[in-house]
Amino acid sequence: MIEVWTWPTPNGHKVHIALEELGLPYKVVPVNIGKGAQFEPAFLAITPNHRIPAIVDPDGPGGKPIQLFESGTILIYLAEKAGRLIPADAHARYICLQWVMFQMGGIGPMFGQFGHFNNYAAEKIPYAIERYGNEVKRLHRVLDKRLGEAEWLAGEEYSIADIITYPWLRFPERRNIVLADYPNVARWYAAIDARPAVRRGVAVLSENQRQGTMNDAEREVLFGKAQFAAR
Ligand SMILES: N[C@@H](CCC(=O)N[C@@H](CS)C(=O)NCC(=O)O)C(=O)O
Q1: In CATH, what number is assigned to the domain containing residue 107?
Q2: 169 and 107, same structural domain?
Q3: What is the pLDDT along the chain (231 residues), one digit of tens a residue?
Q4: Are both 180 and 129 inside the same structural domain?
Q5: Residue 10 alpha carbon to ligand 1 centre in Å
Q6: Whether residue 216 sits in one domain with residue 134
Q7: Ligand 1, closest atom to CA 11?
Q8: What domain count does the chain have?
Q9: Using the 8-state DSSP alphabet, how is residue 26 labeled?
Q10: Are both 188 and 94 inside the same structural domain?
Q11: Which residues 6+ apart lie within 8 Å of 12 measured at CB?
């Protein structure tokens, strides 16, 4: 059975949703990133980057075990393993992968930096908040344009491109975003949000989801010395 080393964050939810959609059996291994579990040797043996999510599949390609980190790779791997949620047609497949990369290289890092400077940084730096806030809005506009010309990000089929993007658009008020200002995104978001597998995916470990502000101990683990120690 696939082991998912994870925590209830947008990057973790991508994998939970994909596994639920694909109906692949999995076992959750919680990695409490607020308490520093990402720095423990068992997790570092799977990912040198000490970030969730990571998976261990004892039945990987050719029947050999495989360990993977980076949520984009994990979603491509799971979709290919199940033969679903990634278009079979070569043209549609590249379009799908293009939007997967757009999430990994654009939405994730930019929304993440906005969250850091707007919500978590002890010092409020107006330039950083404005720069990443502008990027958040720009990326919503790019999505809205795409979803004005196609039902799903990859085109006609719901795919891992939608699954990888959706968790980052949850709680738009935290990014000063009103989803109704992006009507195509709002239509697409509502359709994904209503899917039973998506509901099950975001429920994984949800009892551990942080409510409200980050405490000092978590801040120290995530942004202090432990984070940047050589390993
Ligand atoms: N590019 C990575 C990003 C993973 C990532 O940033 N994970 C966060 C949670 S969403 C994490 O593990 N943070 C722990 C830390 O910063 O120490 C991916 O998509 O898998």
Answers
A1: 1.20.1050.10
A2: yes
A3: 999 999 999 999 999 999 999 999 999 999 999 999 999 999 999 999 999 999 999 999 999 999 999 999 999 999 999 999 999 999 999 999 999 999 999 999 999 999 999 999 989 999 999 999 999 999 999 999 999 999 999 999 999 999 999 999 999 999 999 999 999 999 999 999 999 999 999 999 999 887 777 888 899 999 988 888 888
A4: yes
A5: 9
A6: no
A7: 10
A8: 2
A9: E
A10: yes
A11: 6, 52, 53, 204, 205
Q: Are residues 172 and 207 in the same domain?
A: no
Domain of 63 in residue numbering reads as 2-84+200-228
Please tell me the distance between residue 65's alpha carbon and the centre of ligand 1 in angstroms.
Answer: 23
| Rounded-to-integer distance, Cα 153 and Cα 41, Å | 38
Closest approach atom of ligand 1 to CA 221: 17
Protein residue with least CA distance to atom 19, ligand 1: 71
Residue 6, ligand 1, Cβ within 6 A: no
Is the overall model pTM greater than 0.85, yes or no? yes
Angle at 44 between CA 43 and CA 50, to 5 degrees: 90
Q: Are residues 21 and 107 in the same domain?
A: no
DSSP state at residue 152: B
Pocket lining: 33 vs ligand 1, CB cutoff 6 Å:
yes
C-alpha distances in Å from residue 227, one per residue of 35, 36, 124, 199: 11, 9, 21, 32
* Closest atom of ligand 1 to CA, residue 39: 17
CATH of the domain at 217: 3.40.30.10
Best of 5, 11, 50 for a ligand 1 pocket test (most atoms within 8 Å of beta carbon): 11
Pocket test for ligand 1, best of 52, 102, 103, 119 (most atoms within 8 A of CB): 52
